[in-house]
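S2.1 Query sequence (C4-dicarboxylate ABC transporter)
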Amino acid sequence: MKGQNKLFIFIIVALVIGVIMGGVVHTQYPESSEGFAKNIKLLGTIFIRLVQMIIAPLVFTTLVVGIAKMSDLKMIGRVGTKAMLWFITASLVSLTIGLIFVNWLEPGRVMQLPKPAADAAGDMVANSQGLSLEEFVKHIIPKSLFEAFATNEVLQIVVFSIMFGVALANMGEEYTKPIVRALDICAHAILKMVGYIMWFAPLGVLGAIAAVVATNGFDIFKVYAIYLRDFFFALAVLWLVLCVVGYMILGNRLFELLRRIKEPLLIAFSTTSSEAVFPKLVEELERFGCNNRIVSFILPLGYSFNLDGSMMYMTFAAIFIAQIYGIDMTLGQQVIMLLVLMLTSKGIAGVPRASLVIIVATCTMFGIPPEGIALILPIDHFCDMGRSMTNVLGNALATSAVSKWEGQLENHGGDM
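Output C-alpha cells follow.
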C-alpha cells in the first residue's frame, strides 16, 4: 500500500476515533467538555507547530531556486515570455475564482467556532489582525533576513528571495551553479520533511475533531458536506474557463488533447500528485504534436509556476477558515491575500498537501487561526484529488497553447 493511501486511511481512522471520543464527552460528560477540548487540542498544536517550523526555509529555498533557474529564459526568449504570461494570468484567474466562490457560497458560515487565544509564540498572529494596505507596504521590506525567518514573516522572506534569485539568475550559470544546486537539495530535503510531518496529521485531526465535537456536537459533518460541494462546484467553473480558453486557442484539437491526457488526469486524481504523471504527460503531449523542446522547457517550469487547482484551493481554504472562526476580512485584505498567495505559491512543486504549508503561513499572516487547517485535513484528500487533476490540465493546456503560438504544434504527433 502506498504511503499516501496509508496516511489517508490513518487520517480517516483518527477522524472516527476523534468523533467517538468527542461524542462521548459531549453527550455523557458535558460538564467536562471544555477541559477535555483544551487538553486534546494540544495534539493539533503539535502538528501545526511542526508545519510552521518549515515554512520560512521552504519558501526561501523553493523561490530562490525557481527564479535562479529561469536564467534559461534568456536562451528561449519568446517561448519563456509567452509561458510566463500564461502562468501569471492563469494563476490570477484561479485565485480569483476561489475568492469569488468562497465569498459567494460562504461554506464556513454554517458553523461558528470561537477563535483560539493567541499563544506565546503567536504575537505576530494577533498583531497582524489589523493588516491593511498601509501596514502591508510598511512591512514588505525586511530589516533583517534573520528577523524575518525568526518571526515567519513570509512576505519579507519572499522579497529577499526574489531579489536573491534574480541576482543569481544574472550572474551566469557556471558561477552560481554550486549555490543553486545546494539550495535545490535543501528545497527537496524540506519537501521530504513535509512528507514526514504529514504523518503527524492524524494526531492533529484527532485532537481538532475531538475538541470540536465535544464542544459543538456533530454539526461539523454538515460543514464538510457543504465544503466539498462548494469546492468542487468552484473547481468545475475553473475547468470550464480553462477549456473555453483552450478551445479558443486550439479549436477542435482541444478534444483530442483531452483524450490524450485522460490517463495522466486519472492517475493524478487517484494518487493526489500531479508530479506522479510527469513522464507520461511529456510522452502524451509530444504524441499530441507539441514540439519536444517546448515541452521539455515549459512543463517543468509549469510544475512550479502553474498549479491552477492548488492556487484556487488556497484562497478557498484560507477564507473558509476565516469564515468558520467568524473573522470578517475586508475586500482590500482579501486582494492582498490573493497577491501574497500569488507569490508564495511559486516554487511549490505538485507534492501532495504541500499547499497546506502555504495556507498555514497565509492564515498566520492575516490573523486567521492556523489551527483551522486541522479541521479540513480529513477531507483534504478528496480536495487534493480534484486540484491535482486540475494542475495537470492547466500545464497540458499551457504547453499546447505556447506550441500553437510558436507554430510548433504538429497535426499528427511530434518528435519522440
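The CA atoms of residues 269 and 386 lie 6 Å apart. The domain at 1-406 is CATH 1.10.3860 (Proton glutamate symport protein).
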